[in-house]
Design a protein that fits this description.
The complex is a heterodimer of chains A (257) and B (212). Chain A is an alpha/beta fold and 257 residues long. In chain A, 37% of the residues lie in helices and 23% in strands. The chains are: A alpha/beta (257), B alpha/beta (212).
Amino acid sequence: MSLAKRIIPCLDVDNGRVVKGVNFVDIRDAGDPVEIARRYDLEGADEITFLDITASSDERETMVHVVEQVASEVFIPLTVGGGIRTVEDIRRMLNAGADKVGINSAAVARPEFVREAAERFGSQCIVVSIDAKRVSAKGEAPHWEIFTHGGRKATGIDAVEWAERMVALGAGELLLTSMDRDGTKSGFDLDYTRTISERVNVPIIASGGVGNLDHLVDGVVKGHADAVLAASIFHFGEYTVGEAKQHMAEAGVEVRL
Amino acid sequence: MSKTVAVIDYGMGNLHSIAKALEHADPSARVEVTADPTHILSAGHVVFPGVGAIRDCMHELDSTGLRDVVLRAAEQRPFLGICLGMQAMLGHSAENGGVATLGLIPGEVRYFGDDLTDTAGNRLKVPHMGWNQVAQIAHPLWAGIDDGTRFYFVHSYFADPPDVAHRAGMSEYGHAFTAAIARDNLFGVQFHPEKSQKAGLKLLANFLAWNE
C-alpha cells in the first residue's frame, strides 16, 4: 500500500478553446476544454492542468468560466496556470473550482508573491512553475537557468537555488519544465528533475519533452519525479492516459489503475 | 421530503467542489453552502470541510460564532468532516505549535515529520499528496467501494485516535495512519472525496443515504 505516482495531462487553453487539440474519434468538439477534461477523467487522469495562454487580460474571465464548468462535472484535482499575478487572480480560480494554481513569471518578478499566496491560501494550492534551460558547458557539472517569456528571456537565476527558495517561501509543489526539451519528444531532462527532487521536500512534477510512454517511466524512475505531465502525446491521440498508466504499471511504477 | 445537506461555510476554503460533488452524488439532495446556524441545524446531513492551517480553522469557527453550531450539528445527525474538518473533530492538533480542537472524537493530530522514509529507505516528501489506498474498516459509508481503493490526499498532519473503535480506514505513508474516523453519527476522512472521482462520489452518496 503506497502513494501512486501521478499522470497529469495538460491542456493549453486560448480564450476558452483548447489549442493543439486534435479529434478524438468520439469527441464532438476537440477544442472544448470541458469535453476533453471529461475524457481525460474517464481515462484515469490523476489530475488535470490547464495552462491559460490567452494573451489579452480582458479575456481571462473566460478561463474562470472554463474552470467552473469543468469543476462541476470532473471530480479530480484541477490546476490552473498562466496569467496568475495577484492574490485576487488566485482567489477567483479557487472559487471557480480549481484546487491549485500555477505561478510562474509573477514569482520571478516578485518572489514575495509566493509567500503571500501561500499564507493566504495554503501551500497545498500553490504550484510554482520553473522553466529552465541547461546552461552548463560540456564536462561541467550540470546547472540550469530560469528563462521567462516562453524561453526567450534569460534571468540569470540558477534553477536549483530558485527551487529551494520557492519552497522556503511556501510553494507546495514544483512544476519543472525543461525548455530545452519542451516540444522535442526526446524525453524529460532527467538530471534537472532529479537534482531538484533530491534538494526539496515537496512533490515535483516533471514536464517538457515527453514523446513516448517510456519517457514517463523514466521521469519517475530516473528523474525521481512524483508526477509526470504531458500534453501532446495525449492530445494528438498517440496514447491514452489509460495506456500510459498501464505501461507505467508494467514497468513497476505504482499508479492508480 | 427532499434530503437537505448543509455544507458549513466558515471561511476555510472553496466549497464549490464539495457542493458540486454532493449534487452529483445524489441529484435529489438539496445542497446548501451556508454559515446560517438555523439552516445548518435544520439540515438532515451536515458536511464540515476545511483546508489550510488548524489555528486559522479554529479562529474562524470562533469569529463566525459557528463553533457551538458545529458541536450541536454533530450531536445526532449524520456528520461528515473532510480533511482539516476531520482533523478539527479530534481533541488536539500538533500544528501551529499545538491547538485545542473540537474533541468530538478523542485523539491527536500529528505531523508526518521531515525524515519520513518508505520501507526501502527512500525519503518520502511532505505533504503527502496524491492517490493512496485506504484499507477499510467495516462501515456503511464504504458500501460498494472496493477495499483498498485509492482516494486523493493532500496533508502534512494525520489523525491518531488511540481507540481503534474510532478508526474507519487506514492508509500508509512512512507508517500506518488513520485515513478515516468514525463514532456513532460522525464520520471523518483525511482524503478529499470531492476530488476522488468515482469512489469519492460513491462515498458521498453513501453519506447522504446514511441514517445513523
